[in-house]
Amino acid sequence: MRKIKSWGPGLLLVAPSIVIIGIFVYVLIAATANESLTDRHSAAPAENYVGLENYVNLLDDDRFIHSLRNLAIMTVVFVAGTLFFGVLWAFLLEKGVKGEGFFRSTFLFPMAVSFVASGVVWRWLLNSAQGENAGGLNALFGMVGLDFLQNPWWSHPDWGMAAMAIPAIWQLSGYVMALFLAGFRGIPHELREAGRVDGASEAQLYRHVIFPQLSPVALTALIIIGHMSMKMFDLIMAVSGAQFLTEVPAVYMWQSLLTNDYAKAAAIAIVLLVVVAVLVVPYLVQNARAERQR
Amino acid sequence: MRRTSAFAGLAIAGLLLAACGDDGDGTEGTGAGTGEGSGEVEVFTWWTEGGEKAGLDGLVATFEEECADFEFVNGAVAGGAGANAKQVLASRLQTNDPPDTFQAHAGGELLDYINAGQLEGLSERYEQWGLTDSISAELLEAITVDGEIYSVPANVHRANVVWANPTVLEEAGLSTEAPASVDDWLADLETLRESGIQAPLAVAVDWTQTMLLEAVLLAELGTDAFNGLWDGSTDWGSAEVTAALEKYGQLLEYANDDRASLDWPDAVNKVTAGEAAYHLMGDWTAGKMDADGLTPDEDYVWWPAPGTDGVFQWLADSFVLPVGAPNPAGTECWLEVVGSYDGQKEFNTKKGSIPARTDTDPADYGPYLQSALEDWGSSELAFSLAHGSAAPIGWIDATNSAVGQFSSSGDVAQLQQQLEAAAG
């Protein structure tokens, strides 16, 4: 009886969240997984369970493989780009700059813009026309005599998705910078002093004392940016619209849904979920372990 | 503590209010669902701006005169060229909460709804409203599925039209008349390139390329074989199709590289600005030319896509009677207006398309539409895949994707194999 008193109110308080999350997240995931095993390829209700057929078809589908490839290119460039700029900016600010607050805000602000809004602007900046008709960045390159830098951006058939990552990098580098800045600031000053007393050069200090302590921050940044990239939909729809060239699984899923191919859309959704889970779950497990050790 | 709970109370009240507010917005259009007998007719479209909205308003004006007992409720969903609306519609049909009527392309695109048992047949009403005699027999045949008609077409557009810049053609020493075949067109394109126009053929995103592909298939295969592509009587894997696809590939070599980033108005602009000579696009382009203040014959010319003279590749917006519509009597009155002479006149003179009826007075329409009316009466009819008269949406999407891939790969065999798979 007394026990209930100790955990009862707490449970009561979180119960609504548990129920709502249970229904709107886990029950719906189960419903989607269920749908992905059926033959519901039209607006009519499903007739049979077909096992893993939809998944097998996806792996055999050039279009799906192409969308995965697009996603991989974008994710690699997006993660590498945000980490590079994030670390660089955090490092520079941490060195002590005049007007740090100004720079910090400036770098962070793009994050406040929605992907759709920035995508509309970047659609124009990343205009693929070159030479006389150039617009956006290509026109800028033309104006300053850097014509050789003009390129088709996202409409390049092989590497266009790398250009698609540019707006995303622009938006989220500031966020990664904030993470790293907090990481730098969290390292006790004594450690640096101890290093210096022991005769470490500045480079050695960073290499052996500071960076190792930032690895949890780097992992966090990697996971957050990585899973954002996996789910990318809005930016691509705003920059290029739904088309083959820039299709990623999330866009393909939407297209399948629009064409009433519910089973295929559900299968793509589950594949996406698994891909994201592969990235996120180990991180959560590791986090939980670290908490317990503390 | 007390203050905290007061805050919490406020916050919860706020949330509830917000939730109610959302609800109100979300179901504004579905008000008709509960209004049985109150005479509301919810008309679901994606016509929210420009000529389309003006056309809808014209229909509504006629509806309010003819069906004074009923009240029009606008259930339009904006955005995404209908993509958003289709998504909303799909979920409403699924939860058995259909609007009283909705907009859809007549023909193949309706098959999904018909097969799912979501539409009522309208053949008897056609007799009753006298539509059987006033809509061309060929069109009626094309929209009849297993002996039943499921939609009332409000208008007709033509897809196989090439818009050209006469100044550019004349400077290259070419006639402003249509080339007789795709081969002649290719020769003209080469002449234009030699005269210094690098990309004489303007194309835009995937679906505009699908339109070009269709026009080439139509020209090379002929009307019957082309129409047979959609009912299985023509083989997608045949050598004739391969030859046509190769011609299509040659045409694309004369097209602009930045196509993926353009929409059709951008491609039309390339033509009117003299950067390119041709663009193949549906006849809604005439409306854009008018809006841009351009003069036919002087600033632009049009002709049926080379090799498709005498063939009218049609698409039509139509309205349907969904199963379980809350106010079927109201829907029927709406559909009768849509099919009527006055309704079609009000709608089409504003939207910039021609009526599906055969008793139209050409004097009400502009120069392009007059020529389209003449052709509509005298041409053979061909389906349009890109605009839904030929096949269900899944087929359209798969084709657009294949064409988009071909745009960068140029691999004819792969394109043909994917088109065959799309026909599945």
From TrEMBL, chain B:
A Pfam family for this UniProt protein? SBP_bac_8
Q: What keywords does the record list, in alphabetical order?
A: Signal, Transport
Coiled coil region boundaries: none
Is the keyword Nucleus assigned to this protein?
no
For the keyword Glycoprotein, the answer is no
Task: Give the residue spans that cross the bilayer.
Answer: none
One cellular component GO annotation, for this chain's record?
cell envelope
InterPro entries assigned = Bact_solute-bd_prot1, SBP
Leader sequence residues: 1-18
Q: What are the subcellular locations of this protein?
A: Cell envelope
What is stated as this protein's family in its record? Answer: Belongs to the bacterial solute-binding protein 1 family.
Q: What does this protein do?
A: Part of a binding-protein-dependent transport system for a sugar.
Q: What is the name of the protein in this document?
A: Probable sugar-binding periplasmic protein
Please report the organism this UniProt entry assigns to the protein: Phytoactinopolyspora alkaliphila
